[in-house]
UniProtKB/TrEMBL annotation:
Keyword Oxidoreductase: yes
Record-given protein name: Predicted dehydrogenase
Boundaries of every Gfo/Idh/MocA-like oxidoreductase N-terminal domain copy: 4-123
InterPro entries reported in the protein's UniProt record: DUF6807, Gfo/Idh/MocA-like_OxRdtase_N, Gfo/Idh/MocA_oxidrdct_glycsds, GFO_IDH_MocA-like_dom, NAD(P)-bd_dom_sf
Entry keywords, A to Z: Oxidoreductase
Domain GFO/IDH/MocA-like oxidoreductase, residue spans: 133-266
GO molecular function ontology, one term from the record: nucleotide binding
Oxidoreductase listed as a keyword: yes
PANTHER family: BCDNA.GH03377
Length: 654
């Protein structure tokens, strides 16, 4: 039988691996390399045979009569090239990941349906008989009830790995028509096999088997995509899959999957096709499996109708995970204090290591936990003053809709360690430390709890919005810039926000400097209202808000010229102070400073809290942007008005 004519699109990088495979199959008479498509021509002596070369894939397939095209090109080019090859009449071996988005995946699937041709996806690990063997083991009940599958992988990659091409380490690229998705992160490219193999072992290769996906993306290198990340996939049958990976290890650790059963455990090292089964009676069985070549399998499919090992429709589950990564907030930078940085002879950073990352990925696989659940210091965002951690910023709160989920600061501490915020107290569970909350923005409740309805009073409505974290910029130990989107209950965006937070020492205390700028994206006036503007006098809260600990005693508030809650509440002076004493007898003081002239919302007796009142007694219409800055001085002990006046020039300086 004549050899199958093959065109290779992408002959450099990983394409060299395919050239080696093609050379071996050509020697066996199974294939003939008929053409090479690459913008950089390949030297003839590096190619088996004498293939034609062209940068036009469709024309090359038609000219050579290729029956199979291997697409081994940058991720964002997969869909266009796959569709071009299919429409030119060629079957596909499509490298992983199959596409950079769910929409691109669907384009390829539509072209397959249109042409009736075949597509094999290059997840090589799925060519191992160990995968169906492990699935059979699970189905037999030999491991008992399986609660989940954990995956772990930690490799070392130099800084140059992320600059080897224009698309390396990128989430998206500029394009004449806008932007194109790339999604070149650790989970979706180098460790894509871990995700795809875990889904295959679980029998969840298709998207409908997945109920939800949680992602945590980080990067130690100054790149756009993630180099250290984890994902938790919740399956429709109740089981979970976690995969934790990093490219910042000091050496290579072979990635593996662990199947957790209540009567046994199985570990599959998919790069070596080794399966280890631990029985409850102490017996351990280790088997090594061969691996089928995916191109050879595709050739057998084309010639003899042999079933494909990795058809495109069995990778929709993987693409569902990739889509969650694509749409996730931008990866969080890992501060350099958590890294070990090595420089080359030229002084440039050559390596970035995360100490203990191999153990951390292993712990994730064992516990089926995300990094943030394992107490990893770089998985959170902390503010430091000198070497003292003074505040933690919760940017993925995981709250119920009725709390109007939003990022917040908690706990916030004095330099002496006194906690001066409270989160989700029993009296108002939607009070979240220190942050930004508005009772009514364009008819949406971004405060949490009940909504005040004129004539009815506080009423439970399905009107709660969400402040969705998009990205951090300039994240350092002393502060950050955060981009957020304010969305309504139906997911419609009402506003974009830029939030700038900084911490600095001032005298014996420290100052939290927070500026938020809301930009209306609705195309119509966006109105800020409060309960006060709807008929509840004095309830003008909305804007920056700080909930102090309700367990504090001897609480009082004062301004530059008046003492007490009644005098401070509704005042419009440049500052207001709140003091209290912890149950252990330690005093604290908070001084809030602004220059916008907004009224202050102050509570002392019912609960301790201070905030802005953007709509104190009348609605505030936002047509473009709304910007406000509040500086909060956090101090041990009790300050008086004279001490505040002395500090004021150092607290609020434009």
């Amino acid at each position: 039988m004549r050899p199958v004519r093959v065109v290779l699109a992408g002959a450099h990088g990983h394409g060299r691996h395919h050239l080696g495979v093609l050379r071996g199959l050509a020697e066996r008479g199974l294939v003939e390399l008929a053409g090479v498509c690459d913008p950089r021509p390949v030297a003839p002596e590096d190619l088996p045979g004498s293939p034609a070369q062209s940068a036009d894939l469709g024309a090359l397939v038609e000219k050579t009569g290729a029956e199979i095209t291997i697409v081994c090109t940058p991720i964002h080019t997969h869909a266009d090239l796959a569709v071009a090859a299919l429409r030119a009449g060629s079957h596909l071996l499509l490298e992983k990941p199959p596409a950079a988005s769910a929409a691109a995946h669907e384009r390829i699937a539509a072209a397959l349906a249109e042409t009736g041709l075949a597509c094999q996806v290059g997840f090589q690990s799925l060519g191992s008989p160990a995968v169906p063997a492990l699935r059979d083991l699970i189905a037999s009940g030999a491991l008992g009830r399986v609660r989940g599958i954990g995956g772990a992988g930690a490799w070392e990659r130099p800084s140059g790995y992320f600059t080897r091409s224009s698309w390396s380490g990128r989430r998206r690229l500029a394009d004449p028509d806008g932007e194109v998705d790339v999604v070149d992160g650790a989970l979706t490219n180098p460790f894509a096999h871990a995700v795809a193999t875990a889904l295959a072992v679980a029998g969840a290769e298709r998207a409908e088997a997945i109920a939800g996906v949680e992602t945590e993306l980080y990067h130690a290198h100054p790149i756009e995509a993630d180099d250290t990340s984890c994902v938790r996939v919740r399956l429709a049958d109740g089981r979970v899959i976690t995969v934790a990976v990093s490219l910042c290890a000091t050496e290579r650790h072979e990635p593996y999957l662990v199947v957790h059963g209540d009567e046994g455990r199985a570990t599959f090292t998919y790069t070596t096709d080794e399966l280890r089964v631990e029985r409850p009676d102490g017996r351990v069985e280790t088997t090594a499996h061969p691996r089928a070549d995916l191109l050879e399998n595709l050739v057998a499919h084309v010639r003899h109708g042999e079933p494909l090992l990795v058809p495109l429709d069995r990778t929709t589950g993987f693409t569902r995970v990739l889509e969650a990564v694509r749409l996730a907030p931008e990866p969080v930078p890992i501060p350099e204090r958590h890294q070990v940085v090595r420089r080359g002879d030229d002084g440039e950073v050559a390596w970035r290591f995360l100490p203990g990352i191999d153990g951390l990925t292993a712990l994730s696989a064992q516990e089926l936990a995300l990094y943030s659940e394992l107490g990893v210091p770089w998985a959170g965002v902390d503010l430091l003053v000198g070497d003292t951690s003074v505040a933690s910023y919760e940017w993925r709160p995981g709250l119920p809709p009725a709390d109007s989920p939003r990022p917040y600061l908690h706990p916030v501490r004095t330099l002496g360690g006194v906690e001066v915020t409270q989160c989700r107290p029993d009296d108002h569970v939607h009070h979240l430390g220190a942050g930004v909350a508005i009772a009514d923005l364009g008819g949406v409740n971004f405060w949490g709890g009940r909504t005040y309805v004129e004539g009815r009073g506080p009423t439970w409505l399905d009107d709660h919005g969400t402040q969705r974290h998009l990205a951090f910029r300039d994240l350092t130990d002393g502060g950050f810039t955060e981009l957020l989107e304010w969305t309504g209950p139906d997911g419609t965006a009402l506003a974009r926000e830029e939030r700038v937070v900084a911490a600095r020492q001032v005298g014996d205390g420290w100052a939290l400097d927070l500026t938020f700028t809301l930009t209306n994206v609705t195309g119509a006036p966006l109105v800020v209202r409060s309960s006060a503007t709807k008929g509840r006098p004095g309830a003008g809260y909305g804007g920056f808000f700080w909930r102090a600990p309700g367990t504090s005693t001897a609480r009082t508030a004062f301004t530059a010229d008046a003492d007490g809650e009644e005098a401070a509440h509704g005042s419009r002076g440049p500052w207001v102070a709140l003091t209290g004493t912890t149950p252990e007898g330690r005093d604290w003081t908070l001084v809030f400073v602004q220059d916008a002239g907004d009224a202050w919302f102050v509570r002392v007796a019912e609960y301790p809290g201070v905030g802005q009142a953007l709509a104190w007694d009348r609605p505030l219409a936002v047509t473009g942007t709304l910007a406000r800055r509040v500086v909060t001085y956090v101090a041990d002990g009790r300050l008086d008005a004279a001490a505040v006046r002395e500090l004021l020039p150092r607290l609020y300086d434009r």
